[in-house]
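Field: sequence (string)
Field: structure_tokens (string)

Example rows 1 and 2, in order.
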Amino acid sequence: MMSIGLILEGGGTRGAYTAGVLDVLTENNIFIPVTYGISAGACNAMSYLSKQQGRNYKIFTQYASDKRYLSWGNLIRKGSIFGFDFIFGPLTNELLPFDFHEFYKTEMELRIGATDCMTGEAVFFDKSDIDSECKAVIASSSLPLVSPVVNFNGHHLLDGGLAAPIPIDCALHDGINKNIVVLTREKEYVKHGESAMVCRMMNHTYRRYPELLRTLQNRAEIYNNERAICYREQENGDAVVIEPSSPVTISHYCTKPDKMEELYQMGIKDTKAKLSEIRRFIALNS
């Protein structure tokens, strides 16, 4: 059943690119047996498993500019720049209803990664760990310094992108040796370390979590290494990597619908260009 995996990088509102990719896969009835999602990748994965084509497009282009979704006011009032109470409350239940029935019914599996603050390592949750509150998804999406630590299933958790920004290692560890990887940065991108000021802020904020601080210090190296694994797997014929064909210039916190529309359309274009390759890959490895 789980012969092929789908690996979804995070990236905040850069996830609009992934939304375009997944809408093309859904439109073409390409449903991968197991998806590994981090942060925005986990949020996108939810609608992919529920087969709600276009739902994430509407989230990014209609609601990401809504202050209830993303704003510095949220950070001041509620401690998180992303309004998770809105995203997984009215948005999920009323404005763009999420099809929980289809999500649980589908045979597709989902693994959502977050970072354990006590160990500094990635911890993954399965579809069975996701209820109507979606705390596993919230934990995976809780960016450092702009979101509080999430307590869930006995763990103190933050953004999965810290310890497993592109969860290819988890898939390989699970025995999923053939993967379709969706990145939200162009091929030439190289991540660099944080500024001295950000490092000082992190050292102060997370001083009770020394292992988390060690992970934060190595964040760029972890990210670049995981990208290298993805491209190595592709060179060996064991992966198909879908990445933005043009440089991505928006941040995690973009609130401009036109920029996200542009990124979404790039995801559509890049995936359509690789559809034949994706189909061959699936046919050879199913």
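Row 2 begins here:
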Amino acid sequence: MTLVAGVDSSTQSCKVVVRDAGTGALVREGRASHPDGTEVDPAAWASALETAIGEAGGLADVAAVAVGGQQHGMVCLDDVGVVVRPALLWNDTRSAQAATDLTAELGGGQAWADAVGLVPVASFTVTKLRWLAEHEPANAARTAAVCLPHDWLTWQLAGTPGIDHLVTDRGDASGTGYWSPFTGEYRPDLLERAFGSTPALPRVLGPAEQAGVVAGGGAVLGPGTGDNAAAALGINAEPGDVVVSIGTSGVVSTVSTTPSADPSGTVAGFADATGNFLPLAVTLNAARVLDATARLLGVDHDELSRLALSAPAGSGGLVLVPYLEGERTPDRPHSTGAVHGLTLTTAEPAYLARAAVEGLLCGLADGLEAIVALGNPVRRVFLVGGGARSEAVRRLAPAVLGVPVLVPPPGEYVADGAARQAAWVLAGGDTPPVWPATSTETYEADPVPHVRARYAEVRDLTADRT
């Protein structure tokens, strides 16, 4: 049996799965936590990866490895490969003004969408580089190369052979703001506009191109990819399939055979890990909305779910706008959450629980609507991520999204996608290996358009942090 390993280096933790390259069967797995915060020393990722690999039984018998990682994080290296400063993560919003400035400087959202398939928001690497240049010029001057979290971890596994050996893939490169999914090339002019210079960037590998070998071990390294592209690969998503992922962030993405350009910035026109494209909408607030509401009510997640399902659709007019960490879609990085429609009737735990679940799902429904508006057909909708473990989320999702949803069993789909890519690198060919599809449960419900209409009435009545 030939074994492959997949890594998911996410915001909160690192997961490693070891699978049979031929069948995809899980052999063993490991996990380690990441520190909290919106900036992290990349050394913490390396330490967590080492621990997770150890828990997964090591890589000595593994033939190939690939890394899926959180997108957009800015990892700056000096000319000998030393990390210049802690990496700014995708959910660090301090570059919001830089995003606004860059958008205006190029002539607005249409110009950016035409250039790189997205419009700058604080999440994207290009805005973080502008922030660095403006606020930490000494660190900017030391920066000789810029890469992303998965690029850096692949480079670590290879033994850090020099910054000229950094590699990435088109899926992760497409979330930087200085790589074009239309041409498949970097836009150094946009990088220089943001940063004032053009540091070295990782070479963009093909979907199944070998990235090197693990130092001291000999396992082949795959190119890796960003977490969203890896999840799509892990769930066997095909053109027309929509993946709704409820994790730290909320993600709505679909596999498409053509690139997308949305001048409003709601949909980012990413590439995927197979040679196709992955138009995608992201909310900053997802599963943590459930965490916060459960904490506020003093209940666990099972009880939160029971409470939500006991209240009527629309929560009697009570709406929770879940901008607890600012928001990316819509682009309101300094906004706060809000509760509207509180009355003597709705001042009950069940109504607030229902409003929290519906508010979370309404944001994702807005993203799905924007993706469809760009001409992307919807064949199937998969619901994944930690938030999909909630019975209330599973049962209310088809009502709010307006379509049936398929829920695969809980799994590490980012790590699984990375493992499938590793198997593809070993096997070669134009398409990834076919692993048996996971079983799914189908959830259906009558649409509740009044829930989204009421949410739309109040979602902009939120305050900004001062």
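free_text_note (row 2): Residues 349-373 form the longest helix (25 residues).
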